[in-house]
Every structure is written in structure tokens, then in C-alpha cells.
Write a sequence for this structure.
């Protein structure tokens, strides 16, 4: 079995979808969390100058989505044929826009602007996104085919991040998405990881 | 082979690379190019209100990279092993990070701000990016392994899009990247396609 070494900061951030996938499949890996002070020395050794990176089979991968897809393949969670895999890919990529807006809001220092961004997300971006995604999930609670895929896991992770910033029952009236969340939480590996994972601010 | 119908606007934009992938793989596809005025009617019929979309035997896929990966797999350009596939993915993802910065200056309406952003992009952002990518490409002019992949085609596609917006050839001095570009343009399917695309 190849050894996997994941390196990131001590945070869920961009590495958490990867950690969730390792957990879902019960694949052992080294979960390296570096301090901010150690980053400048490591940065030039990474392919593109940022984290997370995954060292596997003598190679170093970067780009969290590329890494997550690689792990999902090893975990058998990528979709059963090319078309299902494409569906999973589109679901994952489709979440980038709202994630970008969430990050911009979090990083905004001007309090008035921050409130505007928050309102825009909670009243426009988020409801529109969830409406679209309700139609893209099936009634059994899966985005690609009829079994758990990394698209479901990634969606779950995003919603957890959203809930932390915007408390409320966002999935009310969205039964497909409620089922997606339940399916992911019911995975024993994920349930165990969520209970035992290190605490971090974000 | 499944039937493919790609829908986008007429310009290169986000679908340029997808058309190149079909061409490189010698794969037949319906190349639908809509006018701006047709978009409002089509938009609600798309999965996420965006194009390009690819219809494959009735299923609609959106998101440029999801489509790109599907065509690349069909064309044998997605990497030979799962690790190679991940390396192709990471190169493509890095290119899309750069594309976000391009879109930022492209859509800037204030002309003065736009020129400032283009200057910053051409003098700082792009050179730094190309220095990184020069190291990621090998001396045979490939990003992954020793054969053409979607990573090489995507790189060429973005450079082709940029060339009208920059005063000089950004690949000057980048030996590996210049070879990547040469490898892509000398692919027979791509050469024929580019001849057609640029001859009007």
C-alpha cells in the first residue's frame, strides 16, 4: 500500500474534504499540520507555492480538488462511469463560486462592507445555490448515481462551513439535500472522524 | 461512441480548449455557438445557469473542467495512471486560478482601473506564474509524462487567449513552455482545427 502524507495548516479549510475522504474509505494517511511560522521554509518546496499538498508514490500533488479526486478514486467514491464522474466533477466545481464569496466575506475588514457581503450571501447567493443543487441531487440523496460519492462529501463539508457562519435551517424544503447530508453523516468513517478530529478555528 | 453536443458562445472564451480536445482526439461533436440574444432563453435549461454545457447522449454536463476531463478521457489525453491524471488535474486547476485573475481585468468596466490591472497582470502575476509552470513542464515539452495531455492543451489554450491582450510573447525565455506550445500546435488534429479557427 502506498504511503500518503497530507500537509496543511492546523485547520479544516481546503484540506478537510480530503481528510473526510480518507476517513470515509478507512485509508490511513499522515495528517501533517504545520504552524504558520514553518510555512515560509516549506513554500518553495511545494509545486505551486501553496497548501495542501499530498505526497504519494514519490510524487507531490497540489490543488485541493485534484488531490480530493485522486483520493476519491482510491476510495471508490468517484462515480461508476465517465458520465457519473463528470457529474460528480461538475457538482464539486459548481461549489467554488459560493465558497469564493464566503472567503471574501470572512476576509473583509470593513465592517459595513462585510455586512453587505453577508446579506448578499444569505439572501441571494445561498438560496439560489441551494435551489439549483436540490434539483441536481436525486431523491435518494446522491449527486452522482445511486451511491455515495465525493460530490456528496464535498457538499456536506460546504454546508457545515456555511452553518458555522450563517446559523439557520437552510435545507428546509429541500428533501434531496437533507438526504445527501444524512447519507454522508451515516458513513461510519466520516462519523468517527468528525467526532475525533482535532479542534481548529476554521 | 456517444453523441456529443457542445454549446457556448462564438468566441474562444471557456470553450476554446474543449473544441481543441475534440480536435486532438479526432472526436466528432456538434459545435453549437449561440448569439448573446439566445442566452436568456437557454439559461434556465442549463444545470447551473452557465455555459459551456456538453450534452452526452441526453445527459447535460456543465462546468468547463468537468467537461474537459470527460473529453480528455475519451481522447486519451487525461493521463495514463491515476497519479498522472491527478498531475494533469493539478496543472489544469492552476491554470484556472490564473484564469480567475484574467477574468478580473477582462470584466473591469473602469478603463483606467482596467489598464492598471492589465499592467499588474502582465508585469507581475503572469511572469511569476510562468516561472512556476516552466519548472513544472519537462524538457520534452510536456507537463505530465512524455506525451500530450489535456494539461498541455489547456496551457496552450490560455496562452492563445491571452496573446491579443499582451504586448509581447509571454513565453519568451521559457524553453520548456515554448516546447509545450509547439507540441500542442503540431498535433495534427489541433493544427487543422486552429487553421480553421483563425482563418477568418
Amino acid at each position: 500500500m502506498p504511503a500518503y502524507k497530507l500537509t496543511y495548516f492546523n485547520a479544516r479549510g481546503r484540506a478537510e474534504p480530503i481528510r473526510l475522504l480518507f476517513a470515509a474509505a478507512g485509508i490511513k494517511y499522515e495528517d501533517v499540520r504545520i504552524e504558520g511560522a514553518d510555512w515560509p521554509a516549506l513554500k518553495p518546496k511545494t509545486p505551486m507555492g501553496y497548501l495542501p499538498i499530498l505526497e504519494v508514490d514519490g510524487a507531490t500533488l497540489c490543488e485541493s480538488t485534484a488531490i480530493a479526486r485522486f483520493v476519491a478514486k482510491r476510495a471508490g467514491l468517484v462515480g461508476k462511469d465517465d458520465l457519473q464522474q463528470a457529474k460528480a466533477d461538475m457538482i464539486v466545481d459548481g461549489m467554488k463560486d459560493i465558497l469564493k464569496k464566503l472567503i471574501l466575506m470572512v476576509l473583509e475588514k470593513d465592517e459595513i462592507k462585510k455586512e453587505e457581503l453577508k446579506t448578499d450571501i444569505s439572501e441571494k447567493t445561498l438560496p439560489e445555490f441551494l435551489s439549483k443543487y436540490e434539483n441536481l441531487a436525486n431523491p435518494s440523496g446522491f449527486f452522482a448515481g445511486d451511491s455515495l460519492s465525493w460530490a456528496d462529501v464535498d457538499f456536506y463539508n460546504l454546508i457545515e462551513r456555511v452553518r458555522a457562519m450563517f446559523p439557520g435551517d437552510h435545507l428546509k424544503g429541500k428533501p434531496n439535500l437533507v438526504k445527501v447530508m444524512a447519507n454522508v453523516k451515516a458513513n461510519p468513517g466520516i462519523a468517527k472522524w468528525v467526532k475525533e478530529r482535532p479542534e481548529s478555528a476554521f | 461512441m456517444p453523441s456529443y453536443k457542445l454549446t457556448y458562445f462564438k468566441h474562444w472564451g471557456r470553450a476554446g480548449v474543449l473544441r481543441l480536445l475534440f480536435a486532438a482526439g479526432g472526436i466528432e461533436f456538434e459545435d453549437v455557438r449561440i448569439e448573446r440574444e439566445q442566452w436568456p432563453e437557454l439559461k434556465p435549461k442549463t444545470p447551473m445557469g452557465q455555459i459551456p454545457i456538453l450534452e452526452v447522449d441526453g445527459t447535460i454536463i456543465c462546468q468547463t473542467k468537468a467537461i474537459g476531463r470527460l473529453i480528455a478521457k475519451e481522447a486519451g489525453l487525461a493521463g495514463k495512471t491515476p497519479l498522472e491524471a491527478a498531475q494533469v488535474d493539478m496543472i489544469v486547476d492552476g491554470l484556472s486560478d490564473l484564469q480567475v485573475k484574467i477574468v478580473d481585468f477582462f470584466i473591469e468596466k473602469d478603463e483606467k482601473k482596467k489598464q492598471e490591472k492589465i499592467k499588474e497582470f502582465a508585469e507581475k502575476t503572469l511572469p511569476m506564474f510562468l516561472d512556476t509552470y516552466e519548472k513544472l513542464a519537462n524538457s520534452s515539452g510536456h507537463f505530465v509524462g512524455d506525451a500530450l495531455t489535456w494539461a498541455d492543451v489547456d496551457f496552450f489554450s490560455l496562452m492563445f487567449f491571452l496573446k491579443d491582450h499582451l504586448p509581447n510573447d509571454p513565453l519568451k525565455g521559457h524553453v520548456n513552455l515554448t516546447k509545450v506550445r509547439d507540441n500542442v500546435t503540431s498535433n495534427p488534429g489541433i493544427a487543422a482545427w486552429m487553421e480553421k479557427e483563425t482563418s477568418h
About this structure: Chain A has a mean pLDDT of 96. Chain A touches chain B at residues 47-49, 56-57, 59, 61-63, 65-67, 69-70, 73-74, 82-83, 85-87, 89-90, 93-94, 132, 135-136 (CB under 8 Å). Chain A has nine helices and four strands.
